[in-house]
Every structure is written in C-alpha cells, then in structure tokens.
Amino acid sequence: MSEKRRDICALVLSAGKGTRMKSPIPKVLHTLLGEHMLWYVHQGIMQVIKEDHIFYVLGYMAELIENTLSFVRGNVVYQTEQLGTGHALQCAYPHLMKQGFKWCLIVNGDVPLLDIGRVNSFIEEVIQKRVSMGLMTITLDDPRGYGRIVRDSSGNLLSIVEEKDISTNEVRGIKEVNAGVYIVNLEGIKDYLNGLTNDNAQKEYYLPQLVELLLKDNKEILAKESGNDKAFLGINSGRELIECEEILRQRIIDQAFDSGVVIYNPSQVRIGPKVKFQTGSVITGPVELYGDTKIESGVSIDSHVWIKDSEVCSGTRIYSFSHIEGAIIGPNSKIGPFARLRPGTRLIEGVKVGNFVEVKKSVLNKGVKASHLTYLGDSFIDKDTNIGAGTITCNYDGKSKHVTHIGKSVFVGSNTSLVAPVKVGDNALIGAGSTITKDVPNGALAIARGRQKNLNKRIKS
Ligand code: UD1
Ligand code: MG
C-alpha cells in the first residue's frame, strides 16, 4: 500500500442499534470467530488510513462500545439520536472539517469482510479524478436489503433507492447495490449535506441521498462497480452474521493449510483471525482457537478442545475436551483429556496435566506431573514434582488468595489439601489424605491426618 495520506480521514458509522439483529447489544459488538465486528473494520481501514485519523460515530450504547474496544476511545463522534446514516455524517462533519481533512472515507460499521486492497485503489482513483463523491458498488445474486444502484441506459448513475423505498419491480430486480463504502470531498459536499430530507419509508436521513443532490448540480460522482463476490457483505441479521463468519472461517482455514497445518474435519474447526501457527501441527475438529493464540510446530490438538489467548509450544499434545485460556504451555507437554488451564498458567516443559485437573495462575516447572482430579491455584511447583490424585491447593480463605510453594522432586500423596499460604521443601513426601497447614522442611515426610484405629466390631447376635 502506498504511504498514508495526511489529508484523508475515515469515518465508521456505528451508532445504530442493529434492530434487525433483535439483540440487546449493539450490532457492531457482535463477534465473528471471537473478534468484534468493528475490530475487523478497524483492522482493514488501519492499513490505508492513519490510525488516529479513524473516527467512529457512536450512539446506541456508546459507552459499552468504548469500554469494550480500546481503539475507538478518543476518536468518537456522538450521534445521540440515530436519525439515519446521512444524519450520522452531519453529526461528524464539523469535527472533521475543524481538523482540516480534505477527504473522508466513510464505511458502514457492519461490513467486516471489507476488501481493503480494493478500497485502497478506489481511494486513489477518487482522489486522482477529484470527484465530489465516490461510492463502491457490488453485484449480488440476491440484492435484498441493499440500496439499489439506478443508472440510465448509458450507465450513468442516477440515484440509490433503498429496499424499503422501492416501488417498481424493475428497480427491485437491480442486482448492483451500494456497498456502504464512500469517499467524499468534505468541502465538495458542504452545501449539500444539510439538504438531506427524511421523506422516505424509514423517515431517516439517508447518506446515499447525497448522490441525487450532487447530481442535480452536475457534480461528479464515481460509482465504482467492484465485483460480484461477497467481500462487502453487510451484516444486518443473525443469519448474515453467521454467513459472513463462515466466509471468514474458510479463508482462515485455507491460510492455516497453506502455512503447513494439517486439519482433519476442517468444517468443524473455528480459528480466530489473530491465531498464529508454525508449520507441522495437526488439528482434529471440532476445535476452537481464538484470540492471541500461538501454536508452534509439531503440536497435536485433538477434538473438542477450546483455546484462547494461549501459547502452545512445540511437541505438545492437547487431548480431547480440554479448555485453555491465558496459558503458556511449554514444549513436549501433555494436557488432558478434560483438563482446564485458566489465565496465568505457565507450564515450563514436559509437564503433564491430566484428566479433571484445573490449573490457575500457577507455574509448573519442568517435568511436573498432575495426572488426575486436582486443583492447583496461585501456586509454584518446582521440577519433577508429582502431584497425587485429588490434591487441592486451598488458596482462598474467603477474603484473600494465598500462594502454595512446592519444591523440587516432591511427592504429594493422593487426596492432600495444601492450606495456603504454605511451603513444601525439596524432596519432601506428603502422606496421602493429609491436610497440610504448616510448612514442610526439605526432605521431610509430612503426615497430617487422623490415625487409623482398627477396633473390634460389635456383632449383634
Ligand atoms: C445501508 C445503505 C444501503 C447499503 C447498505 C450496505 C443507507 C440509508 N443505506 O443500508 O444503501 O446498500 O448499507 O450495507 O445508508 N448508522 C448510524 N447512525 C444511524 C443509522 C445507522 O451510525 O442513524 C450506522 C449503523 O450502525 C450501521 C451503518 O450505519 O453500521 C449502516 O446502517 P444500516 O442500518 O445497517 O443500513 P443498511 O440498511 O444496511
Ligand atoms: Mg447494514
């Protein structure tokens, strides 16, 4: 991409509720493969427009959007009443002019698949031709829901007619539609923006009405037909959200195959856009990988595994039904089946975390084994220690969390409770069924349980 221009900004229209989603949260906060809709739009635009020149029009639940997405903060223009896309631009206009921008790329916030390569060439063409306004169009087999592009017999643009305002079958049948991506010359639209009216089926001020107003005055508009694929699909309903997500999912699966990952049952594998792979891993779906996850080479991930914001190092195998978030799993480790690794888990190398073991905010050093039915929270466990089945770190006293420190080559017998804060020294041995409340010195055998009594059984005769 060419060097980013200083005189162009971007405006992302994201103030609407998204009524057709029939959801309490704003439309742009819905997610595709674990990332918010607006994140995709931002990522795309950032490639061609300077990040601090990207502005968001927010209205419905603006505060929730600002709290959720850090990139919008500080770059928000408010539209307190959502009176239409044209009104959204009217709200932002003085703000953009004050900052001295000449051009503005306007994008609907519900177009996450945005093909930014094409947007970039479009920007260049509009600027080079010095037209007052440019808009991208796409041709769809099913144009329902979109504004239809009406042209005369020579192909000259006449107007955009919104779905709800269509009165003739001829217009209804038009397959070329407005993609919701525009560039305006801010000075060039100045005298027209306030001329928008709301005498239409939705009683809204439509941004596309600018077309008619400019054309009436013989201003030049570039309506660029840019293909018939799905790169500019708008999301207005739950069904469309899933349709877009599926396109994205398949793209990411293809990229993963290209980067040398073998994926069995790929139709049931969901990989987020930020996930990174080295070559030579094997995944068997259904599997979900999200967030800032990194999978190194030679990793095996079995079916029904869910991973978010985690790093899995080379040679590690994750067995089925494991749930992993915010963890770093060192090389050559074995996790699961049915393991749960929570944020702050750090497994150094060759660690085994077996079935029904939960680990939270803990470091397990090289060679540690916790094979069955265990909870390790706020703990540090040193090299080659074996944690017996049913071991629990009692890290919470009802008010605060406390740390359990277990040394090297310790053997913790089954069904042990370690009441934190507590330290177990290197090479110690803890008898099964112990409740450890005091520190255990290096090399000691600690037993803390009721002594067994074998009494004579009274037999009633
Ligand atoms: C819009 C276009 C339509 C185009 C389609 C492409 C209008 C009137 N119609 O229709 O021609 O084919 O996009 O996807 O523009 N928004 C605000 N403030 C408002 C209203 C909407 O910020 O007052 C935002 C929404 O949050 C959304 C975007 O503008 O992100 C588009 O609004 P939406 O209601 O989805 O318009 P469409 O009916 O899809
Ligand atoms: Mg829309």
Provide a concise account of the structure shown.
By secondary structure, this protein is an alpha/beta fold. The protein has eight helices and 39 strands. The mean pLDDT is 96.
Count of domains: 2
Query: How would you sum up the global shape?
Result: elongated
CATH class of the largest domain: Alpha Beta
Q: What's the tally of helices?
A: 8
**Could you give the count of β-strands?**
39
Bound molecules: uridine-diphosphate-N-acetylglucosamine, magnesium ion
Report the CATH topology name of the largest domain.
Answer: Spore Coat Polysaccharide Biosynthesis Protein SpsA, Chain A
User: Strand portion, in percent?
Assistant: 25-35%
User: What is the overall pLDDT average?
Assistant: 96
Task: Explain what the structure shows.
With 461 residues, the protein is an alpha/beta fold. The chain folds into 2 domains: 8-232, Spore Coat Polysaccharide Biosynthesis Protein SpsA, Chain A (Alpha-Beta Complex), CATH 3.90.550; 238-446, Hexapeptide repeat proteins (UDP N-Acetylglucosamine Acyltransferase, domain 1). Helices cover 19% and strands 31% of the residues. It contains 8 helices and 39 strands. It has a 16-stranded parallel sheet that branches. A hairpin with a 5-residue loop joins β8 (148-151) and β9. The longest helix has 21 residues, at 238-258. The mean pLDDT is 96. Magnesium ion (MG) binds at residues 108, 110, 234, 236.
